[in-house]
Design brief:
- The chain is built from 12 helices and no strands.
- By secondary structure, it is mainly alpha-helical.
- Helix 8 packs antiparallel against helix 9.
- It is elongated.
Amino acid sequence: MIPGRSAVTFRSFLLCAFFLLQAVYVPAETKPDALVLYRQQRYQESIAVCLAEIEANSRNVDSYVVLCWALVKAGRYAEAEEWAAKGRAVSMYDPRLIEIAAEARFYQGKNEEALLLFQEYISYAPNGRRLADAYDFMGEIFLRQGKYRHADIAFATALQFDSLEPSRWVKMAYSREMAKDYRYSLEAYSKALEMDSNNQDAIRGRKRVMDKMN
């Protein structure tokens, strides 16, 4: 045996092991997360990431969903409607795509189409996270159409799922005011003011109703 040969070999082994461990534990480049970007309100970046994901895998339903969410928040409603349709070609009954497609149509003034899609969302997602919002949008559509009793019912249903939003109490109060149901309109405006005493819509609405009652 050559003196020192074993020591040299052992040191070489340690060096190789060190470099191998470095290669294993060097963190890979972090891929942008479209949902994280969306939640950070970085909508344009989220859109770009989603489009790249869809180009890489056109069957990725989650990419279509987040893309449509971001497009709606960015005010690009026609594009959101188009991409929601493409997403539903992949997963026809995904309630997230149905709901966001309804929103896209709502913001474009396509009331009847939006209403049908919100109703479809409710039927497919009876325990969905967006039920309060869906009923709220439906109430808005009924207000546009002058169907004040329908609007009242829609807002009241939305409040069953989320009673902590003053604006929903105001909208329900307004629908009742327009239906000349002043007593219950006053109650709803007062409820909104209990939650937010500075809500100007509730302050003005309550005064209007009190004047009409007097």
